[in-house]
Write a structure and sequence with these properties.
Helices cover 18% and strands 28% of the residues. It is of the alpha/beta class.
Length: 163
């Protein structure tokens, strides 16, 4: 089962963060979010908002060099495991991170996870972030496409209120 893809136009970085925040309030223990997009498309900004919605301790920065970072909940909810798979060469290296040990108890976000993180669970939310416009600082609008995979996301419209 798969939910319908939902598209969002995100004129500002704050809109990207706000969408992440709304999604963060919907997430629960065991959820996997796979983020894909070009460099500078807003993956970390989106994750910052998501972390705010989850109520975890920050600051949220790209874990490029540490590969994975755990942000404990400050409100009794799930912790956030924030992974950057950019430097990983394959599924074996992702498996070496032992993410499945915390997967059921945490919310796991994997930046650059397309083609790697799917081995963790069939239930996941895939988020594709794209830049629309030129590289000029004043023209950095973004677009997000959210697609749920598996039974968990069958009746949930990501980023909107849960029915």
């Amino acid at each position: 089962m798969t939910g319908d893809a939902v598209r969002y136009e995100l004129p500002t970085a704050e809109d990207t963060r706000a969408l992440g925040h709304r999604l963060g309030t919907q997430l629960r223990r065991g959820d996997l979010v796979v983020l894909t997009g070009d460099l500078g498309a807003g993956k970390t900004t989106f994750t910052q908002g998501l972390a705010e919605g989850l109520g975890v301790r920050g600051p949220i920065t790209s874990p490029t060099f540490v590969i994975a970072r755990v942000h404990p909940s400050t409100i009794g909810g799930p912790d956030l495991v924030h992974v950057d798979a950019y430097r990983l060469s394959g599924g074996a290296e992702l498996d070496d991170l032992d993410l499945d040990a915390s997967l059921e108890e945490s919310v796991t976000v994997v930046e650059w996870g397309e083609g790697l993180a799917e081995i963790l669970t069939a239930d996941r939310l895939e988020v594709v972030l794209e830049r629309s416009g030129s590289d000029a600082a004043d023209d950095q609008q973004r677009r997000a496409v959210l697609q749920g995979r598996g039974p968990r996301w069958a009746d949930v419209v990501p980023g909107q209120d849960v029915p």
